Amino acid sequence: MRSTIVTLKMFVKRTLVKFTSAVDIRPLDKLITSKYVNLPQPKNKFLQTYIWIDGTGEQLRSKTKTVSEQTNSVKDVSWWSYDGSSTGQAEGENSDIYLKPVAIYRDPFILMGGVSDNPETNQNKLVLCETLDTDMKPLKTNWRSDCEKTLKSVADQKPTFGFEQEYTLLDRDGWPFGWPKMAFPGSQGPYYCSVGACQAYARDLVDSHYRACLYAGLDIAGINAEVMPSSWEYQIGPTIGIDAADQLWISRYILHRIGEEYGIQISLDPKPVEVGDWNGAGCHVNFNVEEMKKKGEGLKAIEKAIEKLSKRQRTHMRHYDPAFGKDNKRRLTGEHETASYKEFSSDTASRAVSIRIPRQVADNQCGYFEDRRPAANCDPYQVTNILVKTVCLNETGDDDDGKDNKHGKK
């Protein structure tokens, strides 16, 4: 596969977050680490790693503490706090932010007494948390609180979501993993669902993430290499209610942690390479409610939902990336299997539209639809919240000045 050498003055243009390291960080010796990680863990000591979304709305933070009792229910996990002035979420003079546990999962990183063949014997946990201020009100980056209320209000309809999370692997210098430095690899075509040393980059990392998600108890449905080299996708769901978004956030945390192990950055930038003919990265969401599953009748409900969505393009675009639409403008250009962010469109089996009805759904006259607009770095709480509000709760209006945003951010 021939590489084209070019000089690139512009590569990545992150709206919010970009990390690079000019100096390569020396990897630690895993053999030394294993000597200590495999020490027996006391039977009355358990580790809980608290995980939350920071002030960027897309990056995750975590810290771990020791507890003396086993925990199998999130109701038994105690609240904690952290310094919000160091995460872009508070001022220094009033910086304590509460961590409210909302979901727990098995920890695939710290195993009790080393490797265990039985996940049920590992009582170390990952704890997903909401963030609350000193008045016990959700922070501006806490979209889960409102989302949970919305989804509970339509619980009888069983709103079900499936996420297709695309991501890109980068070296620490911000360049795509496996690409020649400051140059392009061979053009797109051979990489999608690829097999081979020159086509599939870093499969070890991808497979490790797959197994770790399964161990943690997530509804991970599959993986595949994506169109741009060093880009991959995994799927979470179909999962009912708030659990779908919770699991997507935890799966992202696991992905970043495994990236640490390999010295590879995980980028959720919707358009990581803006020079050349390269696809972006999205987080398509597949959605249905009970009415859409009815044989012979569901397609009518799907078409009705699409009609509602067609009238709120600007509103949805503001909720589909953490920069309130700015990130996605770089990706949704009408090229590279995307529709234009300016216009709403839908069709059967097309990947150049806002909403796709899968061919099999059209044939069966029931099933689900795929919203292809959410960016790879979207907050799934925002996405599921606005989808349900529009489709199930019949909210109307298409405001792009921030008034429809519950936090009032512009």
Please describe what this structure looks like.
- With about 400 residues, the protein is α+β, with helices and mostly antiparallel strands.
- It folds into two domains: about 40-140, Ubiquitin-like (UB roll), CATH 3.10.20.70; about 155-390, Creatine Kinase, Chain A, domain 2.
- The chain has helices at about 30-35, 145-155, 205-215, 240-260, 300-310, 315-320, 325-330, 360-365, 380-390, and strands at about 5, 45-55, 60-65, 80-85, 95-105, 125-130, 160-170, 185, 220-225, 230-240, 265, 285-290, 345-350, 355, 370.
- Strands 7, 9, 10, 11, 12, 13, 14 and 15 form an eight-stranded mixed sheet that branches. A five-stranded mixed sheet has the order 3-2-6-5-4, with helices on one face. Strands 1-8 form a two-stranded antiparallel ribbon.
- The chain is globular, with a radius of gyration of 22 Å.
Would you identify the CATH H-level superfamily of the largest domain? Answer: Glutamine synthetase/guanido kinase, catalytic domain
How many distinct folded domains?
2
The chain-level mean pLDDT equals: 90
- How many helices does DSSP assign? 9
Tell me, what is the CATH class of the largest domain?
Answer: Alpha Beta
The CATH architecture designation of the largest domain is 2-Layer Sandwich
**Oligomer class:** single chain
